[in-house]
UniProtKB/TrEMBL annotation, chains A, B, C, D:
Domain of life: Bacteria
InterPro entries: D-isomer_2-hydroxyacid_DH, D-isomer_DH_NAD-bd, NAD(P)-bd_dom_sf
Gene Ontology CC entries for this record: cytosol
Domain D-isomer specific 2-hydroxyacid dehydrogenase NAD-binding: 117-293
Ranges annotated as spanning the membrane: none
GO molecular function, one term: glyoxylate reductase (NADPH) activity
Statement: the UniProt record of this protein carries the keyword NAD: yes
Record PANTHER family: 2-HYDROXYACID DEHYDROGENASE YGL185C-RELATED, 2-HYDROXYACID DEHYDROGENASE-RELATED
Keywords: NAD, Oxidoreductase
The name this protein goes by in its record: Hydroxyacid dehydrogenase
Coiled-coil positions: none
Length: 342, 342, 342, 342
């Protein structure tokens, strides 16, 4: 007698099921589904019987047309790494109505929070004043507030208005900023609905006291922020690089900070890890974070909860509503490099 | 023929009129009022004609009963230093219906903003990770997130719910925290109206992930936070000292952080400036700020705007509505030391 | 041996203690205090021993100078009727530091709610369409929506920004209106803090789709809204009279509605009850409510809770923080007629 | 030389292009696109050249497989009637990646607003008190407030959490209700994100002071609210029928109101128009509205703006982001009857 539970192929590297599911949630997953643990490399070699029964994949294995054809019951691919790779015949995937979904939204809240922390640290020199205090060279009271500014009522720009851009707007709520958003893939009404003003890239760069860069890398926007864009910023304004290093000309960003025109913080870098002698390490006014913004345990655990909720909907014949669905039109345009470590 | 404009005695040290009023606002003040610039020491020696005509004082000069009697037209004392001193016969002041008002609310927003910045820096080790990165010893991704936690949805406590406590709640709005407030001078309904839960000191200390200490020093609460209170905090919780050092047993606070039980940030210290060899300078997990939280130009300028608005009300026979009024019952209970520098 | 509990003189007509206190709260009051139940007329005849011991009065009895002098321990008068009468020597009351407080804030929420209900009923003709439907003459779909308009994004004016004006702004929050406020006793910054724009009376009348009139009657504003003000309103705009009839020229308001220039709702009238043949009863577009807006049981019960909270503060030597304090400068300017029924 | 502008087939009955587009927007549409105005009946008879070039359809014409095949360039069907009909081979539509989108979201705001208006009218008897006042039988003050209740802080239930359910939550924001939502197609996390509690149908019916019924009719939920559900409501609670009459057993709803157990308002009816002698017309406590809730000019005009914004995205090879996309899994489950009039 056969096991009636839906079958899941699991190959979530670099994630793992225990990383993304708390013990009780992992037990729930194992109770509700048959799990075949495999790898990207081994998956195509699984027997037809297994592939043909698989309803769901947790992971983002490369799939060729033949393997996809053998996955005849496939309903949804849960990409828990969260960067979309162009490694399967998406046309056919969408033709068959297979959902491809990602759980990257879990990083939005942690990254937005540290982004606001970066902004406040730079506006008030929290990190620098602490270092000075420890070194016995602190300045007291107004003396220590040279360039200090308030965030309340400031003009804030957001580049890209996906999950991270929206989460950034959310953590800023208590500061009542004037919010301008540049997102070329989003219509104006969707930005206005969120309480922000749609704006051109030029307007965001030139009229912001703080810029949250949350744009994903696509086939169209590599290095779209360069020397000219940074030069157009207000003197003393703050640029926060929170998404991917490839959207900026990193050398130009360093130059703009080194020259004293702007302040910056970055969580992402052209190479990771960064060489020990990389010049960014020595630039005053450039706050540094080693790709730590999103990688919180609580974020990974939320991934598994999203998968469980959408599995439940799919089991009932409903579409997934919690994970983000890849779009037929844009799925092949993303260019973020996959992560190798969690 | 006499000048019909109301007469102001001005002795705002350590502030000055140009510090608290932008040039155009200072011109407006000078146009609307006759200003006699004096000092705390010189004021009692002014001629009867001047004292008898003075409607307003900007400053907080010591006044004895005789001088107060000579100030027969006095309507309002604008204390722009903002700490109330027990240096005048308040009973008689209030008997005569003279308002005593302070402009300390201007510091609430800057202090609340840096307080949130402290919290995010400690929750995510922003300052420490930047220092490590500069020293070439950064940890990448999740490796660098040992104790990192989200603020969103955290339990946050606020001690004291005056202007600063309320501003703290406001900047926290985007994080949807569960907010508990301890304020023994405030009835429960006023705390609930602001969206927070009234709580005992014990509950705030024991159930918070982050505590904003915003309580003023009074005759009743010196050192009310000591070893027992810090020991009752959750392991790894964060204590932010944003008001006055005298409300804590500073040695006990240092010990709690040094022992690794809690993290802390402080903008105020038992002595200011602090000796070069003060042990707090070397405690890991203790974020340091040299009484810089409030002293922003924009805050000083707001003082003057508040004074101008309330002067306009008083001129029309209305009570002041913008500055905070000292209360007959509590005015003599405050014990904050006056500031000597801006 | 004497009873150490503070003594309260109670003469709250037309309220009563059971009206304003739920049974358990009334029991609490009786447990915490000695209550002497009296009347406005009988109070002056109470023995010196009683008057001399009375710490609090619940009610608003007329007090002459002699009686006030005998009330030598008096700390606070709780006016639970809530309209301030000019029936005691206020100068002496304030000179002695006796608080005079009112509980009228309890009506703000019920009146604001019905005010929004009036606005929506008039914007969408909810009441008229229901009457038509019952009479079998309803119009279906868009046919029935002649002048229907949305409130979301509308321009809304508020006249007077006390408790009721603020509560009105609060219930409007979900409609994201552009809010203009006229309040001559309030400085601009206090209006801006609440998220509204300070505006002149002219601007509010001329630029609003809906006007909430929440202004109290004072010695200065009787009938300040007349034919000219109503004529300046937008054609089809809505005027909601929620405070007191004496602030408008009621005949002019009726004429403006009868002529089809504006729509209106009123909860208050020049005479109450209104004669059976009063012409307002027959004016289409004039929504009528017989002074019902505030008189909810839940509002009366909240009065007692406010009194209990402030009594607790006063008992501890703190000032009242929940009830609204009368101001020395304005107490004698109010002109609302007292209510005879609850 | 050919016209390079994309071709639109337009058959939006009962809408029309001038209904859904203001003159300037219609001009914009005509400038950006070639428009072929047709009808549901005529469309299949259009020449192959026209069908083969059509990129977009505005309307919801019945399409058989053959016609769909001839529409070889079709990218998106804009259903501006907004009820999805099961009148085309959806499997093939989705296989080809043709978007089917609806503009029904435009009705959410007008319906939510009148829904709140119904709630306030019933809670305070605004409509009834006005009728009584006109008839000279009004009750003054508390006498007229028999069953009056506040909405602030009430327990409110929402059935269905699509655009209308969410808009209802939004207009309720100023009342800080405790909000419970039942929506069997939506995972719990999506409801929590919106600040509401996911709840069972039973919990919503039994624990609400006011229920907003916003659920669409599907193949699964016809008449899911019947005598048992209404009997489970709190005595005196309010049921607002804002979506479609088919989700309730209308007779049972009438009986529950007639018996005095609950109050209700309805904008939709089992037959429209309703017979002159329909018994609902005479039930006290049943507020009636003749399918007027959504049909505002401003709503129809917003339809066209949504279409224009999504056309612009589609023209650039991006997916539509403003209109709501029909889902492959659920498109065939909707059972709302189309409307015949606007």
């Amino acid at each position: 007698m056969t096991d009636p539970r839906p079958l899941i192929l699991s190959c979530p590297l670099p994630r793992s099921l225990p990383l993304i599911l708390a013990p009780d949630r992992l037990a729930e997953l194992r109770a509700r589904y048959r799990i075949v643990e495999t790898t990207d490399a081994d998956l195509p070699g699984l027997p037809d019987a297994v592939l043909g029964e698989a309803r769901y994949i947790i992971g983002q294995p490369p799939l060729d047309a033949a393997t996809l054809a053998r996955l005849s019951s496939l309903r949804c691919i849960f990409n828990v790494e969260s960067n979309l790779l162009n490694n399967m015949p998406y046309d056919e995937v969408f033709r068959r109505g297979i959902h491809v979904v990602t759980t990257g939204a879990v990083f939005a809240q942690p990254v937005a929070e540290i982004g606001l922390g970066f902004a406040l640290s730079l506006l008030r020199n929290i990190h620098g004043a602490d270092a000075d205090f420890r070194a016995g060279r602190e300045l007291w009271g107004g003396e220590g507030n040279g360039a200090a500014r308030l965030l309340t009522g400031a003009e804030v720009g957001i580049l890209g208005f996906g999950d991270l851009g929206r989460a950034s707007a959310r953590v800023l709520a208590g500061f009542a900023p004037r919010l301008r958003v540049f997102d070329p893939w989003l219509p104006a009404s969707r930005i206005r609905e969120a309480g922000a003003e749609p704006a051109s890239l030029e307007a965001v760069m030139a009229q912001s006291d703080v810029v949250f860069c949350t744009a994903a890398v696509t086939s169209e926007n590599r290095g779209f922020l360069g020397a000219a864009e940074f030069a157009a910023m207000r003197r003393g304004a703050i640029f926060l690089l929170l998404s991917r290093a490839d959207v900026v000309d990193f050398g130009a960003l360093m130059a703009a900070v080194r020259g004293g025109h702007i302040l910056a913080a970055s969580d992402v870098f052209p190479e990771e890890p960064l060489p020990a002698d990389h010049p960014v390490r020595a630039i005053p006014g450039f706050l540094l974070s080693a790709h730590r913004a999103g990688a919180l345990d609580v974020a990974f655990r939320r991934m598994g909860e999203m998968v469980l909720e959408d599995l439940a909907l799919l089991d009932r014949g409903l579409p997934p509503m919690v994970c983000k669905r890849a779009e037929r039109e844009t799925v092949a345009r993303f260019r973020s490099r996959p992560v190798a470590v969690n």
